[in-house]
Amino acid sequence: MTNIIQFPVEFVQGWNLIGKLIREILTEHGASEIMTAHICKKMKQHWEKINVQFKSSLSYTLPQHPTPEDAEELKVAIQKMLEEDFGKQIQQFTNQMLLEILKLEIESYSAKYPSSTDSPA
Known about the structure:
Helix 1 runs antiparallel to helix 2. The longest helix is centred in the last third of the chain and has 45 residues. Among the domains are: about 35 residues; about 45 residues. Helices cover about 70% and strands about 0% of the residues. The chain contains three helices and no strands. The chain is mostly helical and about 120 residues long. The mean pLDDT is about 80. The termini are far apart.
């Protein structure tokens, strides 16, 4: 029986580095351990949302002796895939991130101005 050592994937390694930096920054600014744990938990959730992988596929059979016309046809197929598939995925991701930012802005405003009489307007 062999022993298999599992190494964290790049995603986990990336969060570990970012999480460590966030903890260091918060500690330098005097944040409590409770505050640090809460913020790190929230930031990890955001990290997971923004580290998405866009996926698409293209099936194309090249002729045995491709011509310049075949190359142009392949080029058009790749461009279409990039514009349509990736374009839609990126737009959906952008919309999701915009809504996340809106949620954070609402939470921030509500914390800063708990009642409507406290608002700057």
